[in-house]
Amino acid sequence: MTRTLSLSAYLVILFAASPALAGLISFAGGGHRHGGRGHGGLDVEVIQNRFEDQLADIMSAYDEGVADDSTDYYSTDDYADLVDETEWLVDRYDWFLTGVERTIEHIDDYVARANDDLTFYADLLATYEARDDLSETRLARIVDWITSAQDMLTLQIETLTEKQATLEENLATYTTFQTDLTSYLDQIVAAGGTTGDGSDGASAALQALALTGMQTCTPPTTGEATVTPVPEPSATAGLVAIIAAAGWRAYRLRRLTS
Fold first, then answer.
1. 108 occurs within a structural domain
2. For residue 213, is it within any domain?
3. 25 domain-assigned
4. What pTM did the predictor assign?
5. Average pLDDT of each block of 10 consecutive residues along the chain (258 residues)?
6. In a domain, 162, yes or no
7. What residue range is the signal peptide (predicted)?
8. How many domains is the chain partitioned into structurally?
């Protein structure tokens, strides 16, 4: 009974905190700042590919501008806008990479909690199977509820572990891209004889976080929202669903055996 109440309380807290937890599993990115296309529910690799595509577009636009001999490109609004967009891309990628690193770190916590619940259900199952006052039908119903919860928890552990391994494997690629992106910004800013906006990476990340509010936002420009937390499949939402199912089964067990 105590364990059931604790699980129910934990479930309530988890649902209440789910927007914050989404910051660990979700990743911001995709779309241009100016008139870009928003997105949601995408895989991390899809987001990474979009960042790479955006950098390629910026590099192409820059090369075309420099090659145009009819104007002094570095004194045009097009150049100023391109620098601004590149700075925004750097800021958003910094936040994306921070989300990846935090997710890798915190998946261990989720897995540990899921393993603890597996142990609880295994003990609970053994307790019911040792009772001799339950009919075969009633015991079979209880066993079915418990094993279903165990199966879902096991699947979630496997999914989270696999996701963590993939993120760890790709982290070096993400870090290299961050370095290349920042270097390119420095290059085009120096070529134009400007110094950028003077903000450091930390303040930029905080600015991006404030703008998103962990929800979809529209920057103070025209166009659609471009900073969108992206829930990872089989991560926070999946964990909430599994724990909810486990809590429901515990509740049903209490009703069945009371």
1. no
2. yes
3. yes
4. 0.57
5. 42 34 40 36 82 96 92 93 97 96 93 95 96 95 96 95 93 96 96 62 41 36 35 42 48 48
6. yes
7. 1-22
8. 1
